[in-house]
Every structure is written in structure tokens, then in C-alpha cells.
Design a protein that fits this description.
The complex is a heterodimer.
Chain A lengths: L2 H11 L1 H6 L3 H14 L17 H4 L17 H4 L10 E6 L2 E4 L3 H4 L5 E4 H7 L1 H7 L9 H9 L4 E5 L9 E7 L5 E11 L4 E10 L6 E11 L4 E9 L4 E11 L4 E10 L2 E10 L5 E10 L4 E10 L5 E10 L4 E10 L6 E11 L5 E10 L4 E10 L3 H9 L4 H17 L5 H16 L12 H6 L7
Parallel strand pairs in A: 1-5, 4-6, 5-7, 6-8, 7-9, 8-10, 9-11, 10-12, 11-13, 12-14, 13-15, 14-16, 15-17, 16-18, 17-19
Antiparallel strand pairs in A: 1-2, 3-4
Helix pairs in contact in A: 3-9, 7-8, 10-11, 11-12
Chain B lengths: L1 H24 L13 E3 L6 H10 L4 H15 L23 E3 L14 H9 L13 E7 L2 E5 L2 H6 L3 E4 H7 L1 H7 L10 H9 L4 E5 L8 E7 L10 E6 L4 E9 L6 E4 L2 E6 L4 E8 L11 E12 L5 E8 L4 E4 L2 E4 L5 E10 L4 E4 L2 E4 L5 E10 L4 E10 L7 E10 L5 E10 L5 E10 L2 H9 L4 H17 L4 H15 L5
Parallel strand pairs in B: 3-7, 6-8, 7-9, 8-11, 9-12, 10-13, 11-13, 12-14, 13-15, 13-16, 14-17, 15-18, 16-19, 17-20, 18-21, 19-21, 20-22, 21-23, 22-24
Antiparallel strand pairs in B: 1-2, 3-4, 5-6
The chains are: A alpha/beta, B alpha/beta.
Chain lengths: 459, 495
């Protein structure tokens, strides 16, 4: 039996429960999703575009879905220790797949900015939800269709025209569940003309002993001249599986930064698909993965240049230790209607253990002659001479390695446009390499305790 | 407003460019003639009887017929693969004739006098030194017309050194042990759809064996010519270089201009033993179809070499200018420790040509090295893809790969694509891949213009410079031909 069937069965048996509390915009797409899933299965290992990650296998255990929206409680404070010191954020928390605004969130939003559940947004700004929900994520992809079929709620962020949100928005996704569960997460971000915002998304797993699966679909629509930074940090558990799909569309003059960081996980598959649909856009897509134990991280990206005079840059870096494996498949597509494109892509990997594996497939697909495009990919080791140099100067081997790996990741961290977050990330990555993990509860980055003594987080 | 002006100007230059490209690329395909030679052609269609017929015609031993039949039965279970970035019209495998041979006076020509003068004419027209006088040019040639090898020169001289260079059907008769030992070793009939088809119906090809310690005194060369209409060509080349030997092998191909598409599905197998070196160069100039994409050869070839011994070296150099559709990946399996694989390629596509070509470097031996340099040039409405695999096996310590693939775009309607696959399963490997895509910049053209070089010539210069790295790897005799070919196909193109 295909793994997808159990979820389709679940849907047909509980059709009414799915529809009960969900907004009309979500319910409307369900049947279309159901139709497009007919006869399909989730991609398996070796399928084109999924060489090293089987979604079919990822979804195959019988994960429960919180169909009846039972309120799961989670000790938010216990999980949320990776706040950004010296920086105040507008915080919302998603426990499994239900959104909980952190007290006072709504009062702190001004100028018509919306950061709430899609269900609430459907009453506050129904025209926006109607106009954008499900328009960017194509149902032709089975994992997207499955998410659309099962999603009952999600998170909506809306920044009206001309509004700049000074404080970064932060969304913390937490798994807290006694039984294996699949969280069907959905995020819709709409930025009006000349607006600007930054969003930091952190994935945590509190119930580290339980199998969890997160199926996420993120849709980002940027209006003319909008500027948006999206940082996605995953620090989950070895039993957590994640299938994330991000779809973005940029209009004229917009500027988008997407940075996906995987520090700890079980099996992760991230899909990024960005359509540059207006002239003079800037796009940066960056990512890093620090692999250890049996982690598997697969990033797949495509940037489609549909309009002239746009620049895009992709940078993905992996450091893989132990039995971890990594995969990267990135492409640049330049259509005939996109002359004067500059698009660059780079993938650099370090294998730090004999059992680590890396699979890379950078691609260029170019249908226009007035372009400058390149990609580069390397896989290798830490520079032995640099290591030796450092050791001759009295730096122990382990420490020297951490320093080199840290240096290797610097340019991914440097793409971050928030000072506070950049410092925090540098710190997190350093901790991660040093192997200091799981020191404070389920959060594996141990930053809060030590930092607490001299720094006080504002929120 | 300024931007619009820029756009207009660009359009203007583009028009100019198109004119120049138009002028240049309309260069005629000079090998497009047909030769009216009495030819024996088998009726269209493929079934077990056809396979048996081909085998019987060649008087093959039982084991080879078995091999063919096994391949044929396996082929029946396969479907034509669809993953390539190519738009291939449906091929009716029952509408092809699987055997065509120029009717010979006797079984095989003993000397040049016995060869049909028209045949000699054909090869002369192709500029192939078949005549003994021209043999002074120092190349041993095996000429394959349609399905059959018509003449191999210099055999005696080569035999003195123990080098075997003959058609594969002769080799089956004269050196059955060698052929049996190596045939299908590198490319099994189970390898892929076209390998299975070829293994079932292959009619001829070249066989080369270089004994231990022999440095082949001259370049060996095969010229392939499709002549008969309604046929496919399925030849098979097998090269074995024993310990400490060296050979440089050249391959050239042409076909007449026809409105129909003809299928060419060949196999090249190379075995390189300890410290031996094989250099395999191809100048592929099958008929590419007319300006509207009518006709042309489908060139679906499986080429693979096995570096079996310690320090073996295999080097592929190819200049691909012809064929309506090219679909091939000359590969190296680097099994011997410290063996070396190289791949240098220039692939040019124009008009409605399509190419999905590249290489595979499979490192299974320790300290093996490979280099890939691929230069793609696309013009007209063509689509040119590089697809390559670099794989480092778990036990292959200390491997090194460097890949560079550049694409040059000469029109706004063509496409250039890069699909590299890099699988590293060992942490001591260093693998690098670089790719760029761009057109010839206006600065470069302007610089040349300023110095009195007309645009057309400037483009020729730049394209030649761009391809030089690969051209330099070709043997002398071929380099000249390849350079000319590049000029005929593209000379003077600007992007």
C-alpha cells in the first residue's frame, strides 16, 4: 500500500471534521487536492528530483492527525530558550499545528499588520486570504496536495502597503505530543507594496522520544518594492521528519532573502521554489546543514527567472559528520523572457567522517542568451595544512576543527541581515560544532543558561 | 526610458547578430551526397529471425548468436528511456532495416584493387586516406560503410608489432578467444535500451588489441558512413589495451542528407589494463538535418571504458557538431588504483539540433583522478545539455575530480543546460565542479572591432579560443579537421 492512501482514507472518513472549523478558502481547495492525488503516490528515492530522499517512506508510519483540534498543551518556556538577546521579537508559537499568540502579540502589532492563525485572518482580512491561499503552491506536487487536503489551520502574516515592521516577527513551531503525530503546517505571508518585514521561524521538538512528522507548505507573495527576510532554523530531534515546501513569488523591485538552517533533525527535506516575476528583483537563497549521527538533510531549490534585469544568488553549505548524509539539488531556470539575468549558485560541502555521504546536483537551464549564470559545487575535507598550522600554534585539534568549520559556515551566516540574529546564529553554530547540545531541556543549543548571567532577553 | 533605449539597442545588435549567424551557419553540409553502390538491404523490421539472419550472414559461432538472442529478448522487455532533456519523436523500430551492406564482388576485398571504385571514390570524397599511396599520411584506417567494414589499411605493418586492428566480424573468426573474453564486459547487453538493441543486431565495427608493452606506431582510425536509406547503423567497437601499451584511436562519421531520420545506436567498449593508455578521439559529423530541423541522424551511443589495471589511463576527446539528436555519455570506470580518466568535449548545436551529452566518471579504485572539460556552444533554436556523473565509491580513498563545463549561447532562442550529478561516498575525496553560461560579451567584440577585426571574424576567433582547451587535446590530423568543422558549423557567431 502506498503511504499516501492512509491519509486519504483518514480524510474521507473524517471529511466533516476537517471542514468544520476551517475557513472557506481552505475547504474549497480540498476537493481539488483530493482530485489531483488520485492515482498518485509520494515520490520515492530515485525519482527525478528526489534522488536521495523518499517522501513515501517518510510518510509511511501511521501518524495521527489532530483532526478534532484537541488543544495540546506545551510548556512553551521550556522549549523556547533560543531567543535572540538584545532583540525584541513579535512572537507567535505553533504547538504541533495550532497557533497560539504569545500574550500581548496583537496589541503590539500596529498599522494593520496581521500575524495570526489563518482561521482568524479569514475573518479579519478575508479578501487577502481568499486572494492568496493556495495560489502559489501547485497541487500537481503530491506532498503539497496532501498538505492542502489535510490542513485545517495555519499561520497568516500580512503586511499592508507601505508598512515597515521594525521588530522581527518570530514563529516557533513546537512538537509536543505523547503519540506519533503529523503536524500539517501552513504559512501564508503576503507583503503589500513597498512594505518590509523579517520573519524568524524556529522548529523544535519537545517530545524527543516520539516520532513526529511535519508537513509544511509556506507561501510568500511579495508586492512591488517589498522586502522580506525569511530565516528558518530547524533544531528538532532524531525522530523528527520534516517535509517542507516553500513557494515565493516576487513582483517588480522586490527583495527576498530566504535562509534555511538545519542544525539538528532526523530526516529533512526542504524544497524552495522562487518565481521572480517582476523586473529588477534581488533574491538570495542560502542554506546550511550541520549533519551528525544519522541525520539526513536534503535541500532542493529552483529559482525561476521570468522577468528581465533580476539577480539571484544561491549558497548552500554542508558539514557532514558520522553517518549523516546530505543531498542538494539546486537549479536556475532562465526563461526566454528574462534577458539581463545574473544568477549564481554555489554548493560547498565538507565530509568529516568516512561514513558521511554527499549527493549534489546543481543545474542550469537557460533559454536566453543575454545572461550571466554560473554554478559551482565542491565536496572535500577541512584543509589539513590549515589544521596543522593551528596545531603548531597550540590549538588542540578538536578546537581547531571547530574553528575551521565555523569559518567555513561564515558566509552563509553573513547573508543574515539582522545583526542580533547573525551573532546569535554564529553562536548557535559554534555550539553545535563543539558538540555542546541537549544541555537545556529539549532545546539542543544550550544558549540560554550561560547567556542568562550577563544578558537579559527583552521578551 | 534609458532602459528602453538600451533594450532597443540590444535588439538592434541582436538583429545584426542574427544576420551574421544566419550567413555563417547556412554553411552547407558537404558530406551530404549519396553513393549509388549496389547495396544489400534487409527488409524492415526486427524479430528473432532478423537477429539469426545477421548472425548467419556473418557466419558467427554459436556463442555469439546466443549473446545476440539474449540481448534481443532482454530488449523486448525494455522501454525507451525518457529522462533526457530531449524531444525525441516516436521511433518505430519495426520501420528500420537492421542490415545493409555494399554488395561485394567476393566475400572480402583482398587488396584495394578489389574494392568497388565507387566506394573508394566515396571515401576519397570524405577525405579519408584509403588509398595505399595516401597511407603515407601515417594512419591506419578501418572504413565502415553502413553495416559493414569495407577496408582496413596498414594491417600488415601493425601485425608485425602484434597489434590487431580489424573489423569485429573478422576478429570473431580469427581471434574468437579475445573477442569472447572482452565482448560485453564493459557494456553489458543489460546496460540500457540501446545497448540491448545494439548487442542484438550489431553488424560490424572495429576491433583493436594492443599487446603487452607495445606502443602503437600509428594512430588507428575508423570512419563510419551511413549510405543506404531507411536503415539504421549499429556498429560496435572493442578496444583492448594490454599492460604497458598505448594507442590513439580516432573515429569520424558522416551521412547523406535525407529528410528521414536515421538511427545510429553504437557501442564502444574499451578495456585498459595496467599502466596502459588509450586516447579515444571522435569528430562526430553525422548529418544534422536541415535548417528547419527536417532529417538528420539520431545518435544514441553507449561509450564506456574500464580502467582495469593499476595506473591505467583513458582519455576521451570529442567534437560533436552533427546529428539531429545526440545522446551519449562516454564514461570511465576507474577501477584500477591510481588510474586516470579524462573527458574533453566540444558540443556544438545549431538550427533545431538537440544534444544531451556529457560523461560519467566512476571512481572505485584508490587515488584515482579524473578531469572533465566540457564546452557547449548553442545557436539557432537548438538545445544543448551537459549531463555528467561523478561518483566516488565508499572504498575509493584519495580520489580527485575536477569538472568544468561552460556554455556559450549565440542566439536568444537557443538553450544551454547543465545537469551534473555528484555523489561522494568517501570523505577523503576532493570533487570540484564549476559551470558558467554566458554569451560573447559586447566588450570582447568591440575590442576586436577596434583593432580592425570584423565582427564575423572576431566571433570566429572567440569561439575558437573558447574551444581551444579541448581542440588542443585532439591529435594533429583531427585538430585541423575539427577546427574547420567548427567554423563551418558556427564560424562568426555572436550572441
Amino acid at each position: 500500500m502506498k503511504s499516501i492512501d492512509q491519509y486519504i482514507d483518514l480524510f474521507t472518513r473524517n471529511r466533516e471534521a476537517f471542514d468544520k472549523d476551517s475557513p472557506e478558502a481552505m475547504n474549497r481547495l480540498r476537493m481539488a487536492a483530493y482530485g489531483s492525488l488520485r492515482g498518485k503516490s509520494l515520490p520515492e528515492k530515485g525519482d527525478e528530483g528526489y534522488e536521495k530522499t523518499s517522501l513515501d517512506e517518510m510518510f509511511s508510519p501511521d501518524f495521527g492527525i489532530n483532526v478534532n483540534r484537541v488543544d495540546m498543551t506545551a510548556d512553551i518556556a521550556a522549549s523556547f530558550r533560543c531567543d535572540v538577546p538584545n532583540m525584541s521579537t513579535l512572537l507567535g508559537v505553533c504547538v504541533n499545528d495550532s497557533f497560539h499568540p504569545v500574550s500581548g502579540l496583537e496589541q503590539r502589532l500596529s498599522d494593520g499588520v496581521v500575524f495570526t492563525s489563518i482561521r482568524n485572518a479569514a475573518t479579519q482580512i478575508p479578501h487577502i486570504v481568499e486572494a492568496y491561499y493556495g495560489t502559489l503552491a501547485p497541487l500537481a506536487r503530491p506532498e503539497v496536495a496532501l498538505n492542502t487536503l489535510l490542513a485545517q489551520d495555519g499561520v497568516m502574516i500580512y503586511i499592508p502597503d507601505g508598512v515597515t515592521v521594525e521588530k522581527p516577527l518570530q514563529l516557533v513551531n513546537i512538537f509536543a505530543t505523547p503519540a506519533p503525530v503529523m503536524a500539517v503546517r501552513r504559512l501564508l505571508v503576503v507583503l503589500g507594496r513597498n512594505s518590509s518585514a523579517q520573519l524568524l521561524v524556529c522548529d523544535h521538538t519537545q517530545s524527543a522520544a516520539t516520532d513526529c512528522l511535519s508537513s509544511q507548505v509556506v507561501e510568500i507573495a511579495l508586492g512591488h518594492g517589498a522586502r522580506f527576510d525569511y530565516y528558518d532554523i530547524e533544531e528538532s530531534s532524531p525522530l523528527t521528519r520534516r517535509s517542507s515546501n516553500l513557494f515565493a513569488r516576487q513582483s517588480k523591485n522586490s527583495n527576498l532573502l530566504v535562509n534555511g538552517i538545519t542544525l539538528t533533525c532526523g530526516t529533512t527535506r526542504n524544497d524552495y521554489s522562487i518565481d521572480i516575476d517582476g523586473t529588477d528583483c534581488e533574491t538570495t537563497l542560502a542554506g546550511m546543514a550541520v549533519g551528525s549521527d544519522n541525520m539526513h538533510v536534503d535541500n532542493s531549490s529552483i529559482i525561476r527567472h521570468l522577468a528581465p534585469h533580476c539577480n539571484s544568488r544561491q549558497l548552500f553549505k554542508y558539514v557532514l559528520d558520522d553517518h549523516s548524509s546530505g543531498a542538494f539539488e539546486g537549479s536556475i531556470l532562465v526563461t526566454p523572457g528574462a534577458p539581463f539575468t545574473e544568477a549564481y549558485q554555489s554548493n560547498r560541502n565538507i565530509l568529516a567522517h568516512p561514513d558521511a555521504r554527499m549527493h549534489t546536483r546543481p543545474q542550469l537551464e537557460i533559454y536566453n542568451d543575454d545572461v550571466k549564470c554560473s554554478h559551482g559545487a565542491t565536496t572535500g575535507q577541512l584543509d589539513n595544512e590549515a589544521l596543522f598550522y593551528m596545531r603548531t600554534r597550540g590549538i588542540p585539534e578538536r578546537e581547531a576543527k571547530v574553528m575551521l568549520m565555523q569559518a567555513f559556515m561564515t558566509d552563509v551566516i553573513d547573508t543574515v541581515r539582522m545583526d542580533g540574529l547573525r551573532d546569535r546564529l554564529r553562536h548557535l553554530v559554534e555550539k553545535r560544532f563543539a558538540g555542546a547540545e541537549a544541555l537545556c531541556g529539549e532545546c539542543r543549543s544550550s544558549c540560554h543558561k550561560k547567556e542568562n548571567d550577563n544578558e537579559k532577553p527583552n521578551d | 526610458m534609458d532602459k528602453n533605449k538600451d533594450l532597443d539597442e540590444t535588439k538592434h545588435t541582436e538583429n545584426n547578430t542574427d544576420d551574421i549567424i544566419g550567413k555563417v551557419t547556412s554553411g552547407e553540409y558537404k558530406y551530404g551526397f549519396t553513393t549509388d553502390i549496389p547495396t544489400e538491404i534487409l527488409e524492415h523490421g526486427l524479430n528473432e529471425d532478423v537477429v539469426r539472419f545477421i548472425s548467419a550472414k556473418k557466419g558467427e559461432p554459436e556463442w555469439l548468436l546466443d549473446f545476440r538472442l539474449k540481448a534481443y529478448r532482454h530488449w523486448l522487455t525494455l522501454e525507451m528511456p525518457k529522462w533526457a532533456h530531449l524531444d525525441i519523436p516516436e521511433i518505430d523500430y519495426q520501420a528500420i532495416s537492421y542490415y545493409a551492406a555494399p554488395k561485394a564482388k567476393s566475400d572480402a576485398p583482398k587488396s584495394l584493387d578489389e574494392v568497388d571504385p565507387q566506394l573508394i571514390d566515396t571515401f576519397n570524397k570524405l577525405g579519408i586516406p584509403l588509398e595505399e599511396q595516401k597511407a603515407l599520411s601515417g594512419m591506419a584506417v578501418d572504413a565502415v560503410m553502413d553495416s559493414v567494414s569495407v577496408k582496413t589499411t596498414h594491417r600488415e605493418k601493425l601485425a608485425e608489432m602484434g597489434v590487431i586492428f580489424c573489423s569485429i566480424s573478422e576478429a570473431v573468426k580469427d581471434y574468437p578467444d579475445l573477442v569472447k573474453r572482452y565482448l560485453g564486459r564493459v557494456v553489458s547487453y543489460r546496460d540500457n535500451f540501446f545497448a540491448a538493441l545494439n548487442s542484438a543486431v550489431f553488424s560490424d565495427g572495429s576491433f583493436v588489441y594492443i599487446p603487452k608493452g607495445v606502443r602503437c606506431p600509428m594512430e588507428l582510425s575508423t570512419y563510419f558512413r551511413i549510405n543506404a536509406g531507411g536503415t539504421g547503423q549499429f556498429e560496435r567497437t572493442l578496444i583492448v589495451a594490454d599492460d604497458d601499451s598505448y594507442v590513439s584511436y580516432l573515429e569520424g562519421c558522416t551521412a547523406p542528407m535525407r529528410d528521414e531520420n536515421q538511427l545510429h545506436a553504437a557501442i564502444v567498449e574499451i578495456v585498459v589494463e595496467e599502466r596502459a593508455e588509450v586516447k579515444y578521439s571522435t569528430v562526430q559529423n553525422w548529418y544534422a538535418g536541415d535548417k528547419n530541423g527536417r532529417g538528420g541522424i539520431y545518435n544514441f551511443v553507449t561509450k564506456r571504458g574500464l580502467c582495469r589495471g593499476h595506473r591505467a589511463k583513458l582519455s576521451w576527446t570529442q567534437v560533436e557538431t552533427g546529428s539531429a539528436i545526440t545522446w551519449k555519455y562516454p564514461s570511465c570506470i576507474l577501477a584500477g588504483d591510481e588510474s586516470v580518466g579524462e573527458f574533453y568535449s566540444v558540443a556544438v548545436t545549431n538550427n533545431y539540433q538537440q544534444a544531451d551529452t556529457g560523461t560519467k566518471m566512476i571512481h572505485t579504485g584508490k587515488n584515482t583522478r579524473s578531469t572533465i572539460v566540457s564546452k557547449g556552444i548553442s545557436a539557432g533554436h537548438s538545445q544543448n545539455s551537459y549531463r555528467g556523473l561523478v561518483k566516488i565509491a565508499p572504498n575509493a580513498d584519495g580520489c580527485r575530480n575536477y569538472t568544468q563545463c561552460d556554455s556559450l549561447l549565440l542566439s536568444s532562442t537557443c538553450g544551454a543546460h547543465t545537469f551534473p550529478y555528484i555523489d561522494v561516498l568517501n570523505d577523503t575525496a576532493v570533487v570540484e565542479h564549476e559551470a558558467t553560461t554566458s554569451k560573447i560579451s559586447e566588450d570582447q567584440i568591440f575590442y576586436c572591432n577596434q583593432r580592425g577585426i570584423p565582427t564575423e571574424e572576431a566571433v570566429g576567433l572567440i569561439v575558437n579560443g573558447y574551444a581551444r582547451e579541448v581542440m588542443n587535446k585532439l591529435p594533429m590530423e583531427f585538430a585541423v579537421e575539427a577546427q574547420k568543422l567548427l567554423q563551418i558549423t558556427l564560424e562568426g557567431s555572436v550572441g
